[in-house]
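Hi R.,

Here's the chain you asked about this morning:
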Amino acid sequence: MTTDTIAPLYHAAIQADNDWQAALDRAGVDRYSAAASQGYFSEMYAAKIAAYDAFRIAAFPHASR
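And the predicted structure, written out as C-alpha cells:
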C-alpha cells in the first residue's frame, strides 16, 4: 500500500470519529455514557470502527492476521 492509498482511509476514519463526537455534543451526550452506545450513536460508532479497521488493515496488513 502507498500513502496515496492509505491517506484517504486515515482521513475517513478521522472524519467518522469527528462526526460521531459532534453528534454526541449536539445531543448533549457524554461519549462515555450508556446513551453513546445506543441507537443512532451506536450506528455512527460502528461506522467509525469500520473506518478505522479499513485503515488499520490497509496500513498494517501483516498485523491484521
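The chain has a mean pLDDT of 87.

Let me know if you need anything else.
M.
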